[in-house]
Write a structure and sequence with these properties.
The chain is α+β, with helices and mostly antiparallel strands and 357 residues long. The chain has 8 helices and 15 strands. Among the domains are: 58 residues, no CATH class; 191 residues, no CATH class. A 5-stranded antiparallel beta sheet has the order 9-3-6-5-15, sandwiched between helices. The longest helix has 21 residues. The two termini are 33 Å apart.
Length: 357
């Protein structure tokens, strides 16, 4: 496979030092290690090996430098992704499957940025409990189901968008454990029912986490440490519609698994999405899900600021905001997979309040 004309490593080598200096005190040790690994990947800094033709007349020599094997490097982890995909495909049953997505509202996504471990746990467990509970209800499917969940915290445009993708079989084991219960053709569960239970579970667990002091708030959200202020912050969400997507994938479960495998072992942005790097910033391809047709794949440019972060501007003229290199937000922030086979347990609020995934 030919080397891309532009790589994330090229950007880090050319501008990483200036970015680290501009963001001194705001970059974690884990993030610095990721940048260092990507910058050194497949260079002499990591050593390498020499392959030489045994024919004395030829003696062709090729030097191959070692990989960093960092889970966030766009050039590494492809083998691990293929292994993960093969293992998940081997678990598929000979039944129809559904692609289900649970998304957090923007207000909760904002505070999740400061409380990743706790709120991502809530997202995982509330979505799994929602699916398992509604599926077990005799008024709906009346069966015990299993789900495969994968966490995404960024959208295609690198905006903060925590959501869980699920691969769910179109049926399950009957409650008495004697037979397989299949869902109706092209229909699994009502998204309205899923949305309401998911909303209630998330809000209840957020309130419980706040009561035991498991949530931390900084900057504009510092006032939310007060119980009344936090309740008022969540109040509008109790009557709003939460987004839940449930549909049978056109390409079957294998296609959805291939999509998820691209994110379980790689960074948020891959080398193939990079378009250019110039004085105006970094331009990359992204997918606008609101648009159909060729215009669904515009280019987006991140322009460097003189101070902290990057100035994010859409090539289509959207309002600019500031972002601080989101592909390095947190070492384990982009993905995590969970095979939920039994009823989800309560989030371990008291166990840890650290801000890691």
């Amino acid at each position: 496979m030919p080397r891309p004309a532009l790589e994330v490593a090229d950007i880090f080598r050319g501008h990483g030092a200036a970015w680290r200096q501009a963001n001194a005190g705001h970059v974690s040790l884990g993030q610095l290690k990721v940048m260092s690994a990507i910058e050194s990947c497949r260079t002499a800094a990591l050593g390498g090996h020499v392959a030489r033709c045994e024919n004395a007349k030829c003696a062709y020599t090729q030097i191959a430098y070692n990989s960093c094997r960092n889970r966030h490097c766009p050039k590494c982890q492809s083998a691990a992704a293929r292994a993960w995909l093969a293992e998940r495909e081997a678990e598929l049953l000979p039944v129809p499957y559904f692609h289900v997505v649970f998304s957090l509202p923007a207000q909760i996504a904002d505070i999740a940025y400061q409380n990743k471990a706790v709120i991502y746990d809530i997202l995982f467990k509330a979505s799994a409990e929602t699916m398992i509970t509604i599926a077990a209800d005799p008024k709906h499917l009346g069966a015990r189901i299993g789900v495969l969940s994968v966490l995404h915290t960024w959208g295609s445009a690198l905006t903060h968008h925590p959501h869980v993708h699920m691969i769910v079989p179109g049926g399950g084991i009957s409650l008495d454990g004697t037979r397989w219960v299949a869902c109706r053709p092209n229909f699994l569960l009502y998204v309205g029912v899923l949305s309401r239970l998911f909303r209630r579970l998330v809000l209840e667990q957020l309130a419980a986490a706040h009561r035991v002091g498991a949530l931390q708030f900084f900057g504009n959200h510092a006032s939310l440490t007060n119980a009344r202020a936090f309740a008022a912050y969540l109040a509008p969400l109790r009557n709003s519609e939460w987004v839940v997507y449930c549909k049978r994938p056109f390409g079957g479960p294998e296609e959805v698994l291939r999509y998820l495998a691209r994110y379980t072992h790689r960074v948020a942005i891959s080398n193939r999405r990079l378009v250019s790097l110039d004085d105006s910033g970094v331009t990359f391809k992204w997918k606008d899900y609101r648009v159909e047709g060729p215009e669904r794949y515009p280019d987006r440019c991140y322009q460097s600021c003189q101070r902290q972060g990057f100035d994010k501007r859409s090539a289509r003229g959207a309002k600019s905001t500031r972002a601080s290199l989101p592909l390095l937000r947190q070492p384990h922030d982009h993905h995590r997979d969970l095979l939920a086979r039994t009823k989800a347990e309560a989030p371990p609020f008291a166990r840890s309040t650290s801000n890691h995934d």
